[in-house]
């Protein structure tokens, strides 16, 4: 169940909000002047929390890219 609170309510009731989100699994939308600015969800429910997320595997390790290489370049001859 989605719930909406103002930023002032979120600050005032932070501990209770976090507890409710953790136990009930509900989403809480935080608004400022009636505009949604933040969505609080329990950890593990977002696609970004999973190893199968869209960014998984997108970082490559190429080894040492700083040290000089052993190969002489054709342009350096």
Overview of the molecule:
This protein is α+β, with helices and mostly antiparallel strands and 77 residues long. 22% of the residues lie in helices and 22% in strands. It is built from two helices and three strands. The protein has a three-stranded mixed sheet. Strand 2 (27-32) and strand 3 form a beta hairpin. The chain is elongated. The N and C termini lie far apart (69 Å). The relative contact order is 0.14. The mean pLDDT is 83.
Structural descriptors:
77 residues; alpha+beta; three-stranded mixed β-sheet; 2 helices; 3 strands; 22% helix
Order of helices and strands: EHHEE
Structural class: alpha+beta
Walk across the major sheet and give the strand order: 1-2-3
How far from one another are the termini?
Answer: 69 Å
Low-confidence stretches: none
Number of strands: 3
- Tally the helices: 2
Average the pLDDT over all residues and give the rounded result.
Answer: 83
> Could you say which overall geometry the principal axes of the C-alpha atoms support?
elongated
Helix content: 10-25%
Rg over CA atoms, rounded to whole Å, is: 23 Å
Main sheet makeup: 3 strands, mixed
Beta content comes to 15-25%
